[in-house]
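Ops channel
N.P.: pipeline sanity check, posting one input/output pair.
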């Protein structure tokens, strides 16, 4: 099945089973804004807990805060967002559609990659086990031709972005014969900058002095509270400050479901270090963050690093952790060495000293910062995509199953009486009452047991507990495992400890710390 079709099915599944709904749908929706349904909010909260605990429990030098969405407008001048937080915008004159120029070129490069990979796949089928992929990529004329073409475009593209050369960026789009997906024409406008911040007014007087912004990132709330946290918590460098919160960006082209939205949530941690030690810490956090992702068991091959060629104005090193979505490898997390840009800039604009006195060195300095920033919504989408499976069963039937890591599953277990009589519902309710204080449970007695299993598979419930007529005799129930569909009898008295071990974050944390 084409990946585009898989993605459409995934989006449909999210709505049908209560994971994600279009916002304001009864009013025909609002572009690139989504609501999380009853299953989605549970999964989202579990993702946030996995991240939060991995930061503040596993590291005794990382603490959390929750800063305000509204902040003093000068903060965004100091951070560079007022002057530099923009994307290259281009319009197609025929369709009247607006695009990000860099995304158009990135999509074009991805098509070249697809052509190369198709050549490799064809050769692999032709030569079988004797196929040497590395040698083929290094010697095949068609592959080398496409690779050289890609390199030339990419180098020019990266230079244009670094130099803010929008005139040549447009020329590159024309030379690559990139067409508007809607009109199919190459009738493009000039490329221009578009600031992504949402502005609003605070207070009764609608004048310039009351202009504030919805924050485009959560990091600045950490930086302006650096000394508050350091002094009140008696923190010693190196230490980190973690935060989860909403951010807002007026994206030019918000697309690909919840991958790029105008209102989204971030999980960010700023780690403050001594100047000169930042690249060492950058490498450590880069390695640790990839371990965090891979611990979920979605497949190591689905992740890769993408080192930045165009660095942000505040960074001296940056990399993305990308996940293979149904529409290609895309960024889910960024790790950046932000130098001392933020604290120095806020010190300059505020007139307040934001330095740390290091008792070991007996001097004050402005710390350097390593940032890890992950989009909750992108992480949500990567998990949905990685866990969505369509399976053909031995009996000829099929099932859709979400193979969530048990710790992240919205519903940990479903409790089902085999029939609605003979005291089985009462026994099932009693079991649920004993477990619901520790685990998110769901009671289900409607339809055949097979249909109930399919419903639970579709929302990713890892365990189904069936209460049958034998339960009254042996005080046991049948537990059915989502991934294998195997079943076994288990004593009711053992249920709590069994489920607790399986759905705990502890096994994930141990994997990260290895």
């Amino acid at each position: 099945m084409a990946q585009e079709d898989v993605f459409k099915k995934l989006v449909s599944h999210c709505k049908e089973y209560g994971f994600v709904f279009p916002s304001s749908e009864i009013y025909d929706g609002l572009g690139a804004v989504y609501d999380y349904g009853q299953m989605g909010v549970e999964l989202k909260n579990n993702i946030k807990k996995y991240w939060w605990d991995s930061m503040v429990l596993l590291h005794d030098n990382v603490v959390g805060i929750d800063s305000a969405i509204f902040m003093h407008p000068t903060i965004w001048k100091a951070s560079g967002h007022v002057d530099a937080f923009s994307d290259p915008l281009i319009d197609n004159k025929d369709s009247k559609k607006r695009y990000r120029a860099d995304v158009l070129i990135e999509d074009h490069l991805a098509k070249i990659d697809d052509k190369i990979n198709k050549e490799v796949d064809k050769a692999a089928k032709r030569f079988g086990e004797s196929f040497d992929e590395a040698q083929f990529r290094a010697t095949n004329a068609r592959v080398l031709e496409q690779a050289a073409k890609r390199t030339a475009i990419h180098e020019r593209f990266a230079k244009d972005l670094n130099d803010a050369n929008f005139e040549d960026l447009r020329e590159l789009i024309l030379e690559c014969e990139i067409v508007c997906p809607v009109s199919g024409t190459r009738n493009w406008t000039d490329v221009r900058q578009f600031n992504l911040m949402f502005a609003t007014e605070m207070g009764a007087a609608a004048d310039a002095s009351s202009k504030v912004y919805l924050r485009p990132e959560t990091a600045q709330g950490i930086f302006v509270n650096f000394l508050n946290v350091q002094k009140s918590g008696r923190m010693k460098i190196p230490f980190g400050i973690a935060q989860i919160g909403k951010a807002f960006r007026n994206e030019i082209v918000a697309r690909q479901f919840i991958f790029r939205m105008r209102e989204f949530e971030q999980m960010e941690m700023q780690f403050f270090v001594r100047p000169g030690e930042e690249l060492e810490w950058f490498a450590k956090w880069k390695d640790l963050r990839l371990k965090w992702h891979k611990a979920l068991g979605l497949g190591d091959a689905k992740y890769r690093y993408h080192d930045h060629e165009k660095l942000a104005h505040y960074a001296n090193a940056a990399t993305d952790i990308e996940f293979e979505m149904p529409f290609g490898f895309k960024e889910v997390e960024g790790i950046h060495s932000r130098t001392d840009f933020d604290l120095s800039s806020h010190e300059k604009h505020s007139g307040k000293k934001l330095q740390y006195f290091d008792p070991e060195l007996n001097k004050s300095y402005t710390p350097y910062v390593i940032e890890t920033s992950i989009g909750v919504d992108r992480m949500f989408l990567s998990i949905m995509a990685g866990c969505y499976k369509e399976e053909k069963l031995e009996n000829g039937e099929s099932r859709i199953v979400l193979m969530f890591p048990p710790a992240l599953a919205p519903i940990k277990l479903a409790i089902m009486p085999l029939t609605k009589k003979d005291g089985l519902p009462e026994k099932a309710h009693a079991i649920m009452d004993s477990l619901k204080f520790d685990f998110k449970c769901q009671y289900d007695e409607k339809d055949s047991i097979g249909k109930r299993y399919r419903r639970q598979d579709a929302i990713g419930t890892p365990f189904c507990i069936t209460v049958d007529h034998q339960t009254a005799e042996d005080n046991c129930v049948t537990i059915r495992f989502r991934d294998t569909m195997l079943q076994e009898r288990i004593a009711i008295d053992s249920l709590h400890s069994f489920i607790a071990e399986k759905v705990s974050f502890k096994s994930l944390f141990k994997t990260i710390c290895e």
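N.P.: looks fine end to end. The mean pLDDT is 92.
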